[in-house]
Amino acid sequence: MLDDITLYWLTGTATSASQLYWENNANNFNAVDISIPAAVTVFPGEIYQAPRSWTERAYHKLIHFNQVDKGGHFAAWEEPELFSTELRAAFRTLR
Questions:
Q1: What pTM value is reported for the model?
Q2: Distance between CA 29 and CA 76 in Å, rounded?
């Protein structure tokens, strides 16, 4: 995380790097039709936490859905054991 911040700070590119997020802000949470196998873990610290019914509407081949008690937007960094457990559970059925 500090590497990313330093990179943007020293090169003066934070504004241009965030422009994509600013311009697409109105469409961040619209449902889409995804037809490949997908897994979703809802972390409580994430800014968007779709309920299962909404998730199933967007991901037609939902193979795993779980809500956990810890973690946020950077779940792999914040809760690496929980994240890896979820990843293993999610794709176990595809072996």
A1: 0.70
A2: 21
Residue type, 88: R
Grouped pLDDT means (10 residues each) for the chain, 95 residues: 82 82 65 86 91 91 96 94 96 87
Q: What is the pLDDT of residue 81?
A: 97
Q: What is the dihedral of CA 88, 47, 62, 51, to 10 degrees?
A: 120
- Can you state the angle between helices 14-23 and 2-11, rounded to 10 degrees? 110
What's the CA gap between 84 and 92, in Å, rounded? 12
Q: Tell me how far apart the alpha carbons of residues 15 and 82 are, in angstroms, rounded to a whole number.
A: 33
